[in-house]
Design brief:
- By secondary structure, the protein is an alpha+beta fold.
- The protein contains 15 helices and 11 strands.
- It has helices spanning 4-25, 30-53, 59-87, 91-95, 97-115, 139-164, 168-195, 201-225, 232-242, 261-267, 294-298, 345-366, 386-392, 396-399, 410-426, and strands at 120-125, 130-134, 246-251, 256-259, 302-311, 317-328, 334-343, 373-375, 381-384, 432-438, 444-449.
- Strands 4-3-7-6-5 form a 5-stranded antiparallel β-sheet. A two-stranded antiparallel ribbon has the order 1-2.
- The radius of gyration is 38 Å and the shape is elongated.
- It starts with a helix and ends with a strand.
């Protein structure tokens, strides 16, 4: 009994289920969508092998599924490169038009060649199953070389990422992916350069199943390292990246491990220019004795709203409000610190503008001939101009913090209080006519006000 159709169909179901699982983990992430598309390429390959191995498959049906599966084995390596580029955080490359054209161009040319009959010439029955033949002996080599154009950069990106990333979890994910990429690309190469020319149909049939290894490592990375899923660390990283405040993470030796985008943009440094540098270089000259050094930060549990100055790349002073928090290990020993700094330039400018506006406002009120005063909810004078001082005959120091009741009759004081209260409640202006104030020498004067 030929078990290969059942084995290949099981692989097909496994691929589809894994692709659905990856999309379910986070369908909004581009890396999840591209990963699912890459896995579905294996699914098409297994579907082709299921039909070619099934008894009773006609020549026309076999040829149709070979053409259908060509979508998988022609798109697999471009999708793989796209997936690895996103995974290794090559954001500029992924967004570039040239890269996207390169991703689309290979499959487009391959499919055009395939459906023109220039890639796979025909299918033939081997006695056990259907198999296809290249239109020429060089087509298998050309196909593998075309795959290498995509697999080569993918391997380079992963190796380069392994060397540069300080994140242990990301390095483990990248190491898993590197092994999976090399294994899967080796399958494709041996399938087309060794097994087919030697007529090893049974061995070649097994190669379509070895793609399960690649999918297995994806599933392992998802389960073990939260790969392709939203984790608290990933969420925290995205939050830090979008924060308006500057965030600096330092190790136990006072060297900068990472900074967020706001810090880079505000201070004017390059992407990795601060990495590995002493955190003290962030603080502006004059000497460090007048600025908080990293040692003084580590000696405290935290620093809150400390007013200091950072130094930009162009050596200009940047006023900041600094907050820091000590990072400790499980034993309570310091392992680093997180510094959060708020750029105070805008706030200081706003305060200056407000102060200038208030000064102008005060000068206008002081120069008025009409009396002007302000009271709080208890009726205590909080501000009054020189016209009030002149009218009542007191010195300014004598009137400060006095209550308006001191300058009027008791019955009219109650009227004034009710009026003030009504204005406070409704927010609407009220006019008072003909009420009495008492000057310092006891003289009564009739006034009206609003």
């Amino acid at each position: 009994m030929n078990l290969w159709p059942f084995v290949h169909f099981f692989a097909f179901i496994s691929y589809v289920a894994t692709a659905v699982f990856v999309l379910w983990k986070n369908p909004r992430f581009a890396v999840n969508r591209v990963c699912a598309a890459t896995i579905l390429c294996f699914a098409l390959w297994s579907l082709q092998m299921t039909v070619l191995s099934a008894p009773g498959t006609s020549h026309l049906t076999a040829l149709f599924f070979v053409h259908l599966a060509s979508l998988g084995w022609l798109c697999f390596t471009p999708f793989l490169l796209y997936f690895v580029a996103i995974l290794t955080q090559r954001k500029k490359l992924v967004k570039s038009l040239a890269f996207r054209v390169f991703i689309v161009l290979g499959p487009a040319l391959g499919l055009a060649t395939q459906f023109s009959g220039l890639l796979v010439a025909d299918v033939f029955y081997t006695g056990q199953r259907w198999a296809f033949v290249w239109s020429s002996s060089f087509m298998g080599i050309i196909f593998v070389l075309g795959c290498a154009l995509y697999v080569g950069p993918a391997i380079f990106f992963l190796v380069d990422f392994l060397k540069k990333t300080p994140n242990i979890i990301r390095r483990k994910r990248a190491r898993i992916m590197l092994f999976a990429v090399i294994a899967s690309s080796s399958i494709v190469a041996f399938s087309n350069l060794v097994f087919w020319p030697l007529g090893m149909a049974t061995v070649e049939s097994m190669t379509s199943l070895m793609g399960v290894v690649w999918v297995f490592f994806i599933a392992y990375a998802v389960a073990r390292y939260h790969f392709l899923a939203v984790s608290p660390a990933m969420a925290a990283q995205n939050i830090l990246a979008t924060m308006a405040d500057m965030v600096i993470l330092c190790d136990s030796e006072g060297r900068i491990v990472t900074t967020n985008r706001a810090c880079i943009n505000t201070l004017g440094y390059g992407q990795d220019a601060l990495k590995g540098k002493p955190v003290d270089i962030l603080f502006f000259d004059p000497p460090l004795s007048q600025s908080p050094s990293f040692c003084s930060i580590l000696c405290q549990d935290n620093v809150t709203n400390l007013s200091t100055e950072f130094s930009t790349r162009s050596k200009q002073a940047l006023p900041v409000l600094l907050t820091s928090s000590l990072l400790t290990d499980e034993g309570g020993q310091p392992v680093g610190a997180v510094l959060v700094a708020r750029d105070m330039r805008v706030l200081r400018q706003a305060k200056k503008a407000l102060f200038a506006s208030e000064q102008k406002y005060r000068q206008i009120l002081e120069s008025m001939d009409e009396c002007y005063f302000e009271v709080d909810l208890a009726g205590t004078l909080t501000f009054f101009n020189d016209a009030v001082v002149k009218l009542l005959g007191y010195r300014r120091q004598e009137m400060e913090n006095s209550n308006f009741k001191s300058f009027t009759k008791p019955n009219e004081a109650r009227l004034l209080f009710r009026t003030f209260h009504q204005v406070y409640k409704t927010g609407e202006p009220r006019r008072l006519t003909d009420y009495t104030v008492i000057t310092k020498n006891g003289e009564e004067r009739r006034l009206e006000s609003s």
